[in-house]
Amino acid sequence: xxxxxxxxxxxxxxxxxxxxxxxDQLAKEGVKLTHHIAAAPLCTxxxxxxxxxxxxxxxxxxxxxxxxVLQWTGSSGGLPPNETTFTRILQKQGYATGLIGKWHQGxxxxxxxxxxxxxxxxxxxxxxxxxFSMMADCQITQPPEMAAPLRIRLxxxxxxxxxxxLTLIAAKLTQLVPLNWKTIFLLAFFGLLFxxxxxxxxxxxxxxxxxxxxxDEVTEQPMKVERTTSLMLREAIxxxxxxxxxxxxxLVSFLHVHTPLVxxxxxxxxxxxxxxxxxxxxxxxMIGRIxxxxxxxxxxxxxxxxxxxxxxxxxxxxxxxxxxxGWNGIYKGGKAMGGWEGGIRVPGLFSWPGKLPEGTVIxxxxxxxxIYPTLVHLAGGTIPQDRVIDGRNLIPLLQGSVQHSEHEFMxxxxxxxxxxxxxxxxxxxxxxxxxxxxxxxxxxxxxxxYELRFCPCSGEGVTHHDPPLLFDLSQDPSEAMxxxxxxxxxxxxxxxxxxxxxxxxxxxxxxxxQQFSVSNILWxxxxxPCCGMFPFCWCDKENDVCKPGHxxxxxxxxxxxLAADRxxxxxxxxxxxxDRLAKEGVKLTQHIAAASLCTxxxxxxxxxxxxxxxxxxSSNAYRALQWNAGSGGLxxxxxxxxxxxxxxxxxxxxxGKWHQGxxxxxxxxxxxxxxxxxxxxxxxxxFxxxxNCQDNKPPELxxxxxxxxxxxxxxxxxxxxxxxxxxITGLISVPWKATLCFALFGFLFFASWYxxxxxxxxxxxxxxxxxxxTEQPMKLERTTSLMLQEAVSFIQHNKQGPFLLFVSFLHVHTPLFxxxxxxxxxxxxxxxxxxxxxxxLVGQILEAIDKEGLRNNTxxxxxxxxxxxxxxxxxxxxxxGWNGIYKGGKGMGGWEGGIRVPGILRWPGKLPANSVIxxxxxxxxIYPTVAHLAGGVLPQDRIIDGRNLLPLLQHKVWHSDHEFMxxxxxxxxxxxxxxxxxxxxxxxxxxxxxIFSSETSGACYGRGIxxxxxxGVTYHDPPLLFDISRDPSEAMxxxxxxxxxFPAVLRRIDKAVDEHQKTLNPVPQQLSIYNxxWxxxxxPCCGTFPLCWCDKExxxxxxxxxD
Length: 1107
Known about the structure:
This protein is an alpha+beta fold.
């Protein structure tokens, strides 16, 4: 979809000077519509009608005032959430849906992050582009475009007020007028407020409106227009390549050819029509690149391609003598004119090789609204039955199976005012058009409103016609000769029929909230998308991705399956050492974590028990420990497998991440520390790696909450300064004591949160050796070397006796810190580099075991704590893992992608090599397995949920001991797995599932991580049921119609849930709000608190010394 393109600007519609070979090729290979009509002559309402198949007046997107399009990204109006776009229906039919380019349908409703009008809330899985529209304000060298006359008046008023203030000051100083200073200060203060009230919006339009977004994230603020073409083309091609193996819908909504006509150097000055022609030819080139991508991916014959414009060309767009708007051919009028053909008649080209006839021209009236029912029909969807859909399915007309359009009447609105009606009299072939209102051209006869820039819809700028002007477009498409009773005997009969149609049409209209009301179109600072801390909104997350004037640069998204294992199907990331483990041992393909987040999953791994049994499952939004200085953690009465092995004479060591807490009541009690949970030796992070640990990364810990705290602090500061100003100028009589008290309150509020969140790197990013802190904050560039050194050293020092070494990698958690040796070496960006470095570490540890002659008597196990983090992204780069065919990811308690993990076990001579086991197993099974190997006895005073894996691994039994597995999200039961061993079925019932950011996105991209309860989840009664032995992707929920055993299976699972819940006992909640908040008295500190910094590893070995 082009923006503001005139129908007369392209070759296949008669232009023989501007070169549009790719658009012309579409027409040659398919169908050209010559009577294709937009539902509105301006972009916002026209695009609304296109997306919904309905006249914009039905959805409240038509205005009764003078504002007919959205004015701000930070306003509350937009496409209502209750409107059903065709992309929503295509999503339900399994299509991947993407929008690249202009949106202009609104962003937020009530707060900055609700995104109620955003493309992702209207059926698009992926969005990259402008939430607003291109305008001259986006280019520094251009004069202002938005509300230019109003801004001139506001500047004038501000200057008059300033002049008045200065005059009064001069008069006061020279004693010409007897004014007191209070009055002068009051006027000055009023002038300042007046200036700030309008300049805070209109003075920063480039920052507020000229932004680029990727999904919910602002990537450029302000945008750099010189590279936008390259970035958009890259994104469009990337979307096609990513989705080539599944049905997809891609809407490329060009910023061309809207002013300021930003054109790259390759096309500037190349056309015969100045800058406008250059811009059209560049757009045609982009279309060619996209079509070539379809060809190269062999998708051409299975793809319906459609090209159009949102409305006619903008006649009044001029700069000096240069025409910056389009040409509408023989048709009168242009953009913003609701009735004249030039504002609403647009190109309409369809190409679908083998399905649509080539070189066909259709002169029947059709509409942009027809795309809605056409695509829904092709996708096998159903048109909504609860509303009027004004579009008509075009396929019969396009394929030639019918000769006439289904449209009899079309209603042409200017805002919310009906300006004209078209009657397609199929029997006679006439197309009548009655104009009730027409704009008054300025100057008269000019064909446009050049003195106003846009023609109005109502008031003194229009002429009301009674009787209406009548034209026969089949004879007079230029609307040059209005008919009269003398020239057309049927005139009265035609007008009566049209009037009756108008009455019937109006009866179908219902009152709806007006999206263009004054309240909805005003700029609201609290709704302004901002990539920083408002009002400091500027960023450039696309730096060096694409350079202006250069050809397309494309970087693929990172892909990784489970924990980056080639042995699990990934054939691009190199993991030879992990793959060798699988080849020499046993690979588990249905290995399940007990939780989808690190803290509870690791608690279950260490104890062999569901985390809810130990109080390590949260009933609030915080499902993992947040601070080293929190009081929650793995309870001291829990018995870990390390404690059992220690009792059997094993030396036990932990190198790496702990994330099970540190202290309870005092900084030195170390009640949750690894040394109090069975480990003889610990070196690593008591917490977890996060973005805050790396200086050049955005904050990760509680980022949304921190943003709110900053905002409240700024409000308090502003209030304090306002009170001080009022006090000093005498405008308000507030005691100094009250003012200082308020200021002190603001300072205490700031200190109360900044003392924790302002120093996350110092409080959480630390390294310890046993109880001693060695680095505070840690130096990431050497952490990998130090951890490897410690792991190898532990093996060397304990080779003479039995030992347990738990290497808990910081890889591959964000921020994916990778040493220089591996940077840029993988085919999957930073994530792939980090995975390959981890694999190298695995290889170094295995080599150390071989070197010490321990290979044949060492039981080796490799896994991940949970699935990959789908929502972890930075720009276009995927920072989290890929979970293969499995739905969902980290944070999702029930879907397989969050809990199915690698499970590889090697023990040469004891376990069969190159073996694959598909039975359900759990990370909790490691507890009884290693206890059995060490000759230990499982605790008898508690339930152990894990099962000894050794008989299954050695093929002494063929089925797992697990019959039921319970999948929690926090403390909420989301799903249950039933392993029906007698028939091989593996049933899985979902009681609760998260609501994804879009139905097919597979993740909660707007939230960062999916919630466990509340409005962010769906409760299922009856539960969703899958047989994952046949449907491991959980794509096809069963029903009583498709599965005769459906009721019986759910009854058996419900009974198992009841039995399981009877085994649960109340325990202290380790992740309660009290336990997870930062407590200064519990903060590990290597100095005198709060002066906590040290480096006791200075001079430690470099990465390259371990070879």
